[in-house]
Design brief:
Strand content: over 45%
Structural class: mainly beta
Oligomer: single chain
Radius of gyration: 28 Å
Number of strands: 57
Number of helices: 3
Largest sheet: 12 strands, antiparallel
Shape: globular
Length: about 750
């Protein structure tokens, strides 16, 4: 996830200075297998920004929103990103594309026609009438033009121009990108980038014999009768040449007399039924009879892969002895039975031999260890070694490894036991990683009574490496099964048993403003709040820089249940979240014993107004204290806010006194003219994430910045005044902020927090 914060709290002191950058506004590139031209300039690209015109050449381009939504463009397509944030929109200039939304509203416009979805999947390609044509592949989508609106459900096609919307659709020729993208269907919107690659515009022949691939050619042209017993309710994850890496839930598996997997079937309700057919069942293994793995190779599969529109193009792929369809499957652990906290280390019990897509090298060997931290913030630690003889030893590792899980999955489906970690950076080296653009993806499956067994599939990919017409190159795939070697139960933090860090109810995705020696904000944090509105900790789930109360006393507090809460922590020692150990650590900082800490937290914003203004009245706050001596308390005299939701501007006045001095700040224009304010309401999480919900400003020692400061009624250009805040709750019903006043940048600061409620 992109973030607006480019410097985190230093772990050595609570009073570290924080820098706040403007929020990133772009859609990150998930995959590009060819050249991309952005505004006429060709080259490597990591993000597509609003307003840019992009042409895709050579292979597919995929963009991913913060919630995991994926937008795919076929080769030869040209488009413009016209809007991002909470509502992502594109203008399709030419070519074709596919949208799979995980909830973010996404729309595509061309020739006076717009198709949109929230949580569905659809294809869109340039229609002969100048508009759009395509098919809805999952959920529902709405097509709109100047003449009206029409809703389409999964499986229904549409043809729309500026003046008409028809519900008939004839798929184009099977070799066109439009057909390939329009035909892919998914259960929900979860599908892998490699699945979208599919045959990539090249028709895969039914009689593939593996010519040119290393290893013994596959047995082809035969149909092996399906035999075995069928068992429903399984989850399946796989990694394979041509097909990529993905997961399936609610599958029935057919197991042969020798324990081999002969088929998985997702019908009824989902058109996928893949048979092992003439492939051998290789390297079978299991973890306690809960998770099973094997590799299919040496033959060709049969049945149907992904959907009926693909026919047998993907279902009848042949694989030599050096290639493989690697699969892990099992009955998932019921979500309610997974540990609610604690950390586990998993040891390897079985693995398939990793294979390279084009069979260039013989199958290799796998070794490794896996770590998982359970709880509201589920984290994964990976230490894998993939040894491809004659090529290279590849290391797949997350920061901290298995001992200190640090990777937050990009996707979880705990109801079906599945999690996904992608974008694990790989060192350059070997045939699979010819450049620094190499990374690995992992799918995991939790099995057993309490998640004590785990199956994984993995894939090593460098998108700068060449692939053939079957999208086979030097990518590496494999599967492994693990069982729990140790489990350490969770607790109330690392403060020596008396810590209050994880006491109370946990809230997820809350906003936080805080201050000790400086002030700042964090988005999408995990917060613990007592029933009496005491804030006991906040942990930013995106990175480090998170604080718990530890043994600190509570000096004052307040709040509105389930919307906003604030606290001032007094004497004692705080906790700092340690990303390496995955636990809260007793800081033992001498300065922290006397220094007070101010924190205010708020619920995520829902139904943010899209226009109009709203006034906010002060409802409470902490007693302001000096950063160098908490005994020097002050008084929050007055404060008021006005938010212009159309212009996304925040007007603020605030007055605080301490030690005979009166500090005040005001945004340019005050409350009467918020349009003149230099303080904007922006989205912390970047493109496609949370709504515009936070604001920040300072005078930075000079005039003309977001706020104007005064001391004892006189302008104070040399002073330091900072504000960090957020809006929270349904309709942005509340707001919270922390503030700082100081005579100069290096001088001790007066710190406090203030809470507001929207006026009736």
């Amino acid at each position: 996830m992109t973030t607006s914060l480019d410097r985190l709290l230093a772990s050595t002191a609570m009073a570290a200075a924080l820098l706040l950058a403007a929020p990133a506004q772009a859609l990150p590139v998930l995959f590009t297998g060819g050249n991309v031209t952005v505004d006429g300039v060709a080259g490597a690209v990591g993000n597509i920004e609003a307003g840019q015109t992009v042409t895709v050449e050579g292979a597919l381009l995929q963009l991913q929103a913060a919630d995991g939504s994926i937008v795919t463009f076929a080769p030869g397509s040209t488009f413009r990103l016209t809007g991002e944030g909470d509502n992502i929109s594109f203008e399709l200039i030419s070519g074709s594309m596919r949208v799979a939304s995980n909830g973010t509203p996404i729309s595509v416009t061309r020739g006076g026609v717009t198709i949109s979805t929230s949580g569905g999947a659809f294809s869109a390609f340039e229609g002969e009438g100048g508009g759009l044509e395509g098919r809805v592949n999952g959920g529902t989508a709405t097509v709109t033009n100047g003449a009206g609106t029409r809703d389409f459900a999964k499986g229904e096609g549409y043809v729309a121009t500026e003046t008409s919307i028809a519900g008939t659709f004839t798929p184009p020729a099977t070799t066109t990108p439009q057909y390939l993208l329009a035909s892919f269907e998914s259960e929900g919107a979860d599908y892998s980038p490699a699945d979208d690659q599919g045959p990539g515009g090249a028709q895969i022949l039914d009689d593939v014999t593996g010519g040119g691939y290393g290893g013994t050619p596959p047995v082809t042209g035969v149909i092996v009768p399906l035999e075995g017993d069928e068992f429903p309710g399984y989850s399946v994850i796989y990694a394979a040449d041509s097909l990529g890496i993905d997961g399936r839930e609610g599958a029935s598996v057919t197991i042969g007399s020798g324990g081999e997997l002969n088929q998985y079937d997702l019908e009824p309700g989902y058109e996928e039924r893949l048979e092992r057919n003439s492939n051998q069942s290789l390297e079978r293994g299991n973890a306690n009879g809960n998770i099973f793995i094997e590799r299919w190779a040496g033959g060709e599969t049969n049945g149907n892969y992904y959907n009926v529109f693909n026919g047998d193009t993907l279902a009848t792929l042949g694989r030599t002895s050096h290639q493989g369809f690697h699969i892990a499957y099992g009955m998932p652990t019921p979500e309610a039975d997974l540990p609610v906290t604690g950390a586990a280390i998993y040891s390897l019990v079985a693995a398939t031999n990793p294979t390279m897509d084009n069979g260039r090298f013989a199958p290799g060997t796998f070794d490794g260890e896996l770590g998982i931290t359970f709880g509201p913030s589920f984290l994964v630690g990976i230490d894998f070694t993939v040894d491809m003889p004659g090529d290279h030893i590849y290391l797949i590792q997350t920061a901290g490894g298995a001992a200190a899980p640090s990777a937050a999955p990009s996707y979880t489906d705990f109801a079906n036991g599945i999690f996904r970690v992608h974008g694990i950076a790989m060192a350059e080296g070997g045939a699979a990683c010819p450049s620094s653009n190499c990374d690995a993806s992992i799918y995991g499956l939790l099995g057993g009574a309490a998640g004590e067994d785990v199956g994984i599939v993995y894939r090593i990919m460098d998108f700068t490496a060449d692939m053939d017409d079957f999208f086979r190159g030097t990518q590496i795939s494999g599967a492994a099964a693990f069982t729990q070697a140790s489990f350490t139960g969770g607790g109330g933090g690392g403060g020596g048993g008396s810590s209050q860090t994880e006491v109370g109810d946990v809230k997820t995705d809350w906003q936080v403003a805080f201050g000790g020696g400086s002030v700042d904000v964090r988005h999408e944090s995990e917060v613990y709040i007592d029933g009496d509105d005491t804030v006991n900790s906040w942990r930013w789930t995106a990175a480090s820089g998170s604080y718990g109360r530890g043994t600190k006393t509570v000096e004052d507090k307040g709040g509105v249940a389930d919307v906003i809460a604030w606290s001032r922590w007094g004497t004692g020692t705080p906790d700092l979240y340690n990303n390496v150990s995955g636990d809260w650590d007793d800081l033992g900082l001498a300065g922290s014993i006397a220094q007070h800490y101010h924190v205010i937290v708020g619920a995520p914003v829902t139904n943010l107004p899209v226009g109009g203004t709203a006034d906010y009245n002060l409802i409470g706050g902490t007693v302001p204290t000096m950063s160098d001596d908490a005994a020097q308390t002050g008084t929050l005299n007055a404060a008021a806010m006005r938010v212009d939701f159309a212009a996304l501007r925040v007007g603020l006045t605030l007055d605080v006194s301490q030690g005979g001095n009166d500090w005040s700040l005001e945004t340019p224009g005050g409350l009467a003219a918020t349009a003149a304010s230099g303080m904007s309401l922006v989205a912390q999480g970047g493109v496609g994430s949370v709504p515009p919900d936070f604001f920040y400003g300072n005078n930075n020692g000079a005039a003309g910045f977001a706020v104007e400061a005064s001391l004892n009624g006189n302008p104070c250009g040399a002073c330091r005044s900072d504000v960090r805040g957020f809006v929270a709750g349904d309709g942005a019903s509340h707001a919270g902020l922390t503030y700082r006043f100081a005579p100069g940048v290096a001088d001790p600061s007066l710190i406090g927090a203030a809470a507001f409620a929207k006026a009736p």
